[in-house]
Design brief:
This protein is 39% helix and 28% strand. It is of the alpha+beta class. It has one domain: VSR Endonuclease (Endonuclease, Chain A, 3-Layer(aba) Sandwich). Strands 1-2-3-4 form a four-stranded mixed beta sheet, sandwiched between helices.
């Protein structure tokens, strides 16, 4: 995913990876658009910790986009299109 997001390759916006924020490490974040992109494995299914984390990030004004590892590997274009759509939201 980093290869696809780095160097303003997607939507001409800057993403950073593995960014410390409060007590969390964000997989990918675009501070310009306040978008956090998380790539998750099955251990995150119905995770209460993730729900708490998402609520804290949302309270800071972030939108959180979560994708499964399998979707990133097998449906990369759909994931990228979804991220682009989220970047376009006000």
């Amino acid at each position: 995913m980093w290869r696809l997001l780095r160097d303003r390759r997607l939507g001409h916006v800057k993403f950073r990876r593995q960014v410390p924020f409060q007590n969390y490490i964000l997989d990918f974040v675009c501070f310009e658009k306040y978008l956090v992109v998380e790539i998750d494995g099955s251990q995150h299914a119905s995770s209460e910790r993730d729900a708490v984390r998402d609520a804290k990030l949302a309270a800071e004004g972030f939108q959180i986009a979560r994708y499964w590892n399998n979707d990133v590997l097998q449906r990369r274009n759909a994931v990228l299109e979804d991220i682009l759509a989220k970047l376009a939201e006000p």
